[in-house]
C-alpha cells in the first residue's frame, strides 16, 4: 500500500500484517484500555456478566462496539446475514447459554445495510458462486433467496425497482424481521419472555453513517 493511500485508511492491521504486528497491536490496545479504563481487566478477570446477547452479521464493518460497549458487556453471535436458525445447534446453544446461564436481559438482532449475502441474492449472483468451493454458502444463502422471493412484489414496486441500494436496505430490514420472528419460536426465548426476564429488539446498522436505528419487528 502506498504512503498516500495509507493516510486514508484508519485500520490497525493490513493484509500483509504478520503475527508480530498482531502482538504489537495488542500491546498498544491493552495499554490504551488500561489507561482509559483502569478497572476493566480486573473486573473481567473475575468473570463475565454481560447484559445483552447481540446477534449480528459476520460483516467486518460492525459488531456490538457500534453502541460503544466495552469487553464484558455483550455476548455476541455473528453469522452471515444475522440468521437465527432455530434448527442449528450453535444457535440453540448460544441462546441457552446467554439466556439461561449468563442471564442476559436483552436480546438484539442487528442487521446492516449493504449486506453481501443479501446483495448476492438480489443481484442473482448466488448461481455464480464457484460451486465446488462455495457449495455450503450457496445452500446457506437459500434462506435469503427465499426472503427475496417472498417479497418479490414489493421489490418490484416503482419505489424499489431498479434501485439496488433501496432494495438491499429493504431486504436487510425484512431479514431482521424474519429472523426476529424465528427467535420468538425458540423455547428458551419464549420462556424468558414469559418470565419477563428479557427484552428483545431489532436494529439496523448503517455502514455508511455508523448510525443504528430501531426496526419495528
Ligand atoms: Zn451482512
UniProtKB/TrEMBL annotation:
Enumerate the UniProt keywords alphabetically. Answer: Lyase, Metal-binding, Zinc
Q: How is the cofactor bound?
A: Binds 1 zinc ion per subunit.
The organism's place on the tree of life at top rank: Eukaryota
Q: Name one GO cellular component term.
A: cytoplasm
Pfam families named in the record: Pro_CA
Gene Ontology biological-process entries:
carbon utilization; cellular response to carbon dioxide; cellular response to oxidative stress
Q: Which cofactor does it need?
A: Zn(2+)
Q: Which major enzyme category is it?
A: lyase
Q: Which residues bind Zn(2+)?
A: 57, 59, 112, 115
For this chain, the family text in UniProt reads: Belongs to the beta-class carbonic anhydrase family.
**What does the function comment of this entry state?**
Reversible hydration of carbon dioxide.
What protein name applies here? Carbonic anhydrase
Q: Whose protein is this, by species?
A: Kluyveromyces dobzhanskii CBS 2104
Amino acid at each position: 500500500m502506498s504512503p498516500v493511500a495509507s493516510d486514508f485508511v484508519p485500520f490497525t492491521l493490513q493484509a500483509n500484517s504478520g503475527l508480530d504486528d498482531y502482538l504489537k497491536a495488542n500491546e498498544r490496545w491493552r495499554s490504551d484500555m488500561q489507561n482509559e479504563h483502569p478497572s476493566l481487566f480486573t473486573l473481567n478477570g473475575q468473570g463475565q456478566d454481560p447484559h445483552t446477547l447481540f446477534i449480528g452479521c459476520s460483516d467486518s464493518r460492525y459488531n456490538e462496539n457500534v453502541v460503544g460497549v466495552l469487553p464484558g458487556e455483550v455476548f455476541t453471535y455473528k453469522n452471515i446475514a444475522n440468521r437465527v436458525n432455530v434448527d442449528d445447534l450453535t444457535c440453540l446453544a448460544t441462546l441457552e447459554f446467554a439466556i439461561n446461564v449468563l442471564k442476559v436481559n436483552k436480546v438484539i438482532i442487528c442487521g446492516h445495510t449493504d449486506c453481501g449475502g443479501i446483495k448476492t441474492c438480489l443481484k442473482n449472483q448466488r448461481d455464480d458462486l464457484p460451486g465446488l468451493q462455495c457449495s455450503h454458502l450457496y445452500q446457506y444463502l437459500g434462506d435469503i433467496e427465499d426472503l427475496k422471493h417472498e417479497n418479490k412484489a414489493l421489490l418490484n414496486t416503482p419505489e424499489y425497482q431498479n434501485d439496488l441500494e433501496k432494495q438491499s436496505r429493504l431486504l436487510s430490514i425484512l431479514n431482521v424481521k424474519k429472523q426476529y420472528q424465528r427467535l420468538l419460536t425458540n423455547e428458551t426465548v419464549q420462556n424468558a419472555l414469559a418470565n419477563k426476564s428479557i427484552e428483545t429488539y431489532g436494529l439496523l446498522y448503517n455502514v455508511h453513517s455508523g448510525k443504528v436505528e430501531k426496526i419495528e419487528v
